[in-house]
Write a structure and sequence with these properties.
Elements (H helix, E strand, L loop, with lengths): L2 E2 L4 E2 L21 E2 L34 E6 L8 E4 L5 E4 L2 E3 L2 E2 L3 E5 L4 E5 L10 E4 L5 E4 L11 E5 L4 E5 L10 E4 L5 E4 L2 E2 L2 E2 L3 E5 L4 E4 L11 E4 L5 E4 L2 E2 L2 E2 L3 E5 L4 E5 L10 E4 L5 E4 L11 E6 L4 E7 L8 E4 L5 E4 L2 E2 L2 E2 L3 E5 L4 E5 L10 E4 L5 E4 L11 E5 L1
Parallel strand pairs: 1-3
Antiparallel strand pairs: 2-31, 4-39, 5-6, 6-9, 7-8, 9-10, 11-12, 12-13, 13-14, 15-16, 16-19, 17-18, 19-20, 21-22, 22-25, 23-24, 25-26, 27-28, 28-29, 29-30, 31-32, 32-35, 33-34, 35-36, 37-38, 38-39
């Protein structure tokens, strides 16, 4: 089955194929996927950048009965791409798979005002399993990934004002399936990922003022396909993922003031290619994903930075990996699509962070995984692309709300 690739958006995630050739990438034909980060990020976007958790009322505003509606088609099919909400409200979608065994360097914009997708400037390199981060100045940083033959250390920046990508400083380490997180001071933390046949523990910081990357502290261990988010404390949590095909239950915190990673409480279940997002009261929600044997999980956990521990957040209504997760304007969390037992899902569910419960909600118009999801400025959710039930790349998009 196809590979998948995660403000408050986390793009999403997938599983890495056993026996990936060092420096290369396998196309969608077996259980594998990548993330951003989301994500969520997420992350991937993720997918886009992660952000500090919102402070919402202890009692969530009720979510009215909503439905998914068709939102037209993208300029071209794409899966495991990055999706980033721009400051002007448009959504940038870049790279990803456009067909089985074929990745792209193209990008396009979705405009909520017109409801249409239009082509924009192309990246300088074909990329899949890259990550994207919205910078404070409105530009979008694209890092790493694979061009289909080798891993990339080249990074580039998209400027919405010109509609063009420009090459920026190169990363110290070529990597894919890493996380990228916008810090409070405007720098971007790029951590972990896959390189030369193994998962790496290196991390680096991108400074948009200089356009350069600088090495920072090492992760406590190599990991890829993890989920990362900026907490309200200013620290970054990185949780789960895998190391050499073994799913991880561990988590760690990065402190921008010291430049160091330290271990924090572990999850009750090891999970790779899960989805996660920062929620109310500074907590971090992580859900689903795959275990080491690539069995999809339905469990969820909440991390509290005050205690440094994960606690159960109940069970999803369906096991799922390679899904998308976004936080809605009222503080509840939407989880959509994904795959379980080889079957693409059209089901979605809502998580209430006050009661720690998941509730089934309206279904997607199409079953999909490896898709992209972004919360628009008006509160609606754009879901686009991904892999279909028949393992073809989707061009369709839909709107929730």
């Amino acid at each position: 089955m196809p590979i998948l690739v995660g403000l408050f958006v986390v793009v999403i995630a997938g599983a890495i194929v056993a026996g990936l050739v060092a420096g290369g990438v396998l196309p969608p034909s077996s259980k594998a996927s990548a993330s951003p980060s989301s994500a969520v990020a997420a992350s991937g976007s993720p997918t886009s950048s992660e952000s500090a958790s919102p402070e919402v009322s202890p009692t969530l505003a009720p979510t009215p009965a909503l439905a998914f509606a068709a939102a037209g088609s993208m300029v071209q099919p794409r899966a495991n791409a990055t999706a980033t909400l721009l400051q002007d409200g448009r959504v940038l979608m870049a790279g990803g798979w456009v067909a089985d065994k074929k990745a792209t360097n193209t990008a396009e914009l979705y405009d909520p005002k017109t409801g249409k997708f239009t082509a924009t400037g192309s990246m300088h390199s074909t990329r899949v399993y890259q990550d994207a981060t919205l910078l404070t100045d409105g530009r979008v940083l694209i890092t790493g990934g694979s061009n289909g033959k080798s891993l990339l250390n080249m990074a580039e920046v998209y400027d919405p004002k010109t509609g063009r990508f420009a090459v920026t400083g190169a990363m110290k380490t070529a990597r894919m399936q890493h996380t990228s997180t916008l810090l409070a001071d405007g720098r971007v933390l790029v951590a972990g990922g896959y390189n030369k046949g193994q998962h790496v523990a290196t991390a680096e910081l991108y400074d948009p003022k200089t356009g350069k990357f600088a090495a920072t502290g090492l992760l406590t261990g190599g990991r890829g396909g993890a989920v990362a988010a900026l907490l309200s404390t200013g620290k970054v949590i990185i949780a789960g993922g895998d190391n050499n095909e073994v799913a991880l239950a561990t988590a760690e915190l990065y402190d921008p003031h010291t430049g160091k990673f330290t271990k924090t409480g572990s999850m009750s279940e090891a999970r790779q290619y899960s989805v996660g997002v920062a929620v109310s009261h500074g907590r971090f929600l992580i859900a689903g994903g795959d275990d080491t044997r690539l069995n999809s999980l339905d469990s969820a956990e909440l991390y509290d930075p005050a205690t440094g521990k994960f606690v159960s957040a109940g069970q999803m209504t369906s096991p799922r990996s390679d899904a998308v997760m976004v936080i809605l304007k009222n503080g509840s969390v939407l989880v959509a699509g994904g795959v379980t037992s080889g079957t693409a899902l059209d089901s979605t569910e809502l998580f209430n962070p006050t009661t720690s419960t998941f509730t089934a909600t309206v279904s997607l118009l199409e079953a999909r995984y490896g898709e992209m999801a972004v919360v628009l400025n008006d509160g609606r959710v754009l879901v686009a692309g991904g892999w279909s039930e028949t393992d073809t790349v989707l061009k369709s998009a839909e709107i929730y709300g």
